[in-house]
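INFO  loader      accepted 1 record
INFO  loader      residues=94
INFO  predictor   begin
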Amino acid sequence: MADQVLIVREPGTSRVKFDSRLAVGGVCLGIYAVPSGVHAYSFPGMGPGLTGIVLTISGNNLSGLAYTYDNDLGYPRFIFNGVSIGEPVALFVK
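INFO  predictor   done
INFO  writer      dumping tokens
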């Protein structure tokens, strides 16, 4: 079975902004098209004490105004507050 990788390129130049094969200390939990309205993504199989990071597919770190992250339930949880993001997002923890 082939390994799955995530490569984010800069629009227009195709310059690599992120390559999961070279990333150190983080795990991509998946790429999600966040629907409109409040929506949560939870990962109960992961442990507490992790830091959450959200990147847009264009490689930009998503503003904390669009989501919150917590470990209140003992595992990572990303809660999107209904702000339109306009593109899929990649969720990471480290």
